Amino acid sequence: MNENANESERTPVEQRGLYFEEFDTSATYLHRPGRTVTEADNVFFTTMTMNTQALHLDSAWSETQEFGQRLVNSMFTLATMVGSSVAQLTQGTLVANLGFDSVVFPHPLYHGDTLYSETVVIQKRLSKSRQGQGIVALEHTGRNQNGVIVATAVRNLLVRCREGAA
């Protein structure tokens, strides 16, 4: 294609996630960039979701507790970890999020930490009841800027197959 092509000669390329056949069980999908979590993110998410837990909102009280400071709301951590995978894995190819088998928070996330997420495919199979669709089990892992795991989640998805496949 001519590098000086006019708009009518250009091929449109739309960003999308992976079709069932493209999910690679031998890959680790790194979702970048990371997301540095601010105090405003935590307070807004916590109050928006009506979570009145003092560990997220009360700085003076939290300083007297085990971690010595406020913790980032774990639901924010989960949502951000999963959300960071969407553009790379499921944008436009997801039929439904079927649920989570496990969610674990082995270490807290703090204001100012950067969350980096990655995903591996732990299982996939064609749907028995929905032709042209497959079920994929993903394990998401979130790490802080020091590589410490702050969250893991196993999520099951229903995704589209390529048109005409399966």
UniProtKB/TrEMBL annotation:
This is Dehydratase. InterPro entries: HotDog_dom_sf (IPR029069), MaoC-like_dom (IPR002539), MCH/BMMD (IPR052342). SUPFAM superfamilies: Thioesterase/thiol ester dehydrase-isomerase. Residues 27-141 form the MaoC-like domain. Signal peptide: none annotated. Belongs to the enoyl-CoA hydratase/isomerase family. It comes from the Bacteria. CDD domains: FkbR2.
